[in-house]
Fold this protein.
Amino acid sequence: MASRDPGSFRDPSATVFASGGAILRSVNGEAERNFLLLKSSGAYDDLLGRGWIIGAEEVDAAVLTDMPEPARGTRVLVHPRLPFISYPYEWPFALLKRAALLHLDVQLRALDFGFTLSDASAYNVQFAGHRPVFIDISSFVPYRDGDYWTGQRQFIEQFVNPLLLRALFGIAHNSWYRGALEGIASRDIVALLGRFRRWLAPDILTNITLPDLMQRRARHAPDATTRPARPLPKAALQLLLRRLHRWISKLAPKAIAPTEWQRYETDNVSYAGDEERRKRDFVADFARRHAPASAWDIGCNTGRYAEALLQNGAKSVIGFDADLDALEGAAARAAAGRLDFLPLFSDAANPSPAQGWAEAERTGLSSRRNADAVIALALVHHLAIGRNVPLPFVAEWLVGLAPRGVIEFVPKADPMVQRMLRLRRDIFADYDSGQFEQALGRHARIVRRLELAAGGRALYEFERVAG
């Protein structure tokens, strides 16, 4: 039986279900009429041809035997299943910016065909590799002359304010956004802005300061009579959207001193001689032999090894890292190489949980696990020593992510580990390669082992064992 997506409940006329390799959307009433108009107008084919929206094929619900009974009498749209679902609080700055610009591009092009978007949720955008794609086909509604942009506040709070948090203040949006799923409220951004910037920066004044002021007045005087709003000419709406597009296009993460991990690829002193090349060859050989449809790179840094996977047979890679500056480099690498590589923010010791309505609307990272292979290079010591996670826990967790993979073990004598221990007491008597191999062996078979230097870093290819 097709299962209803736990995040699809706010629009009763367009419910999303998952069935095997496909995503189904039952549409009825107004949602069905709007979709037929979208198709007949040429807007759907135009947007699909640009790669801006997800495909939607019409299917007779009567032939879908696994659809729940209430959806049998509706029109059903079949969407291709994306490799991975991610959320705005997991996107680095570059990806959130790409998603914001795509939303505006879609809105502006839809207006050319007489359509607009009923909302501006950032969750309506997903990524296919580095490329954003709009997925909520039922958001397209006919445009009526004089209409205001009903999704403006939502767009500002779910796209613009998180971008400004980093662009103006050097504060990452991710943890704040994760704790406030509807975005970062304009009142919070206004509180952070100085008086000069709040009132004299035109884009901020127009999109944040004045709308927030009007909302405050409305809350303080809810019964006050208001004049009917004047109709907004279509040309004025288009101008508003284009100005937003130009503003967002110019936003960049506030310059911060490069982090150690951002420079890791170019200034790495952890490997001598040909050790780095041998490490890359090991990963490349693994990819050639297994050609995983989906691989996860835990601690992906700037994406060097994700790229090696893709160049040697992997179909797609999802990367995770807690260093946002390194992730900006990974996003740039993915875009420049047009790689099927999605770099996401994630703290391995504190990954995204299940949250939202009934703690199911936004699923946790473990529930989205879909990897055929995993690589975890120079990661184990950061968890076992940096975060005090027992070594057996780390090995069990990594093996649980995928049926096979490559793990790098960094011994205690390594300069990087010694730096980590410099200002703390060494309480890690059980941290050594023998203990790691024993922990790994409880859950997997060690297929290959490569010691990059005598008594130094070592790579392990594993294959999970049943049970």
About this structure: The mean pLDDT is 91. The first strand starts at residue 3 and ends at 4. DSSP finds 17 helices and 16 strands in the chain.
